[in-house]
Amino acid sequence: HAPHRRAEMMSSGARPARPLIRLNRKSCSLPLARQEGFTLLELLIALAAMVLITMVLGGVLRLASRAWERGEQQVETQERSRDLVALLSQELRSAYPYAITDGDKLVHFFQGEGGRVRFVSAVSDPSPGGHAPFRVVTLFFERGGGLFIRSAPLLGRGLPEDGHASAHLLDSRVQEFRLRYLGPDGWVSSWEPQEVKPAEAQSRGLRGGQVAAASDPAPAIPRAVEVTLTLAPSRALGPITLPIFAATDLKKTNPTGKPRS
Q1: Coil, strand, or helix at residue 17?
Q2: The model scores a pTM over 0.85
Q3: Cβ distance 198 to 105 under 8 Å?
Q4: What mean pLDDT, rounded, does the chain reach?
């Protein structure tokens, strides 16, 4: 029937009706598949965020590493400082009132200044083959060099020369080394060998190269030595008071050197 209708419509001059269905271009066009990923702006933002996070984490790790290193250095410094103080304590506490002949005088040998002290130690020579019961010990400080010790066995009646034995470096970090000495009248900055009185020497029967017994009253050496150290970097130790065992009975004396009431 459709051909007849077209013929009738054409004979009557009427146009054939257009199809009522309109094609929607958007609906007919194939949808563009969205690719998985980021746009350039998103990539730039993500990259900037990653750089920022990396910088923050790097800074935190650097701070933690520096704190760890500082902690390790502090522990090492404390251990070395403790060892240094222990060595100084051992040497200074062992000072002994050794009687020597100084010219025509008999003196208890102990000589100290602000940064240097020389004395006779009752600790025997620790070196292999060392059989001397006493040693002459010198502790001294050299600015820019550190703290040194010189030890030589005491043989015979005379003291060895101060430069006879080689010096050993105790600690190069020492920037300051101060000593004070406790006498009968209090603390003093230097100490000279005290002369043995003739009556005392006669009563003890002392001659040059002999020692005064530790039980003898008030030997003329300091009752204690006060040590103040400054280690690099700017670490102060002390003042540390080290009593000398062979001196006087410290139970009757307070740190000021005045008798207790």
Answers
A1: coil
A2: no
A3: no
A4: 75
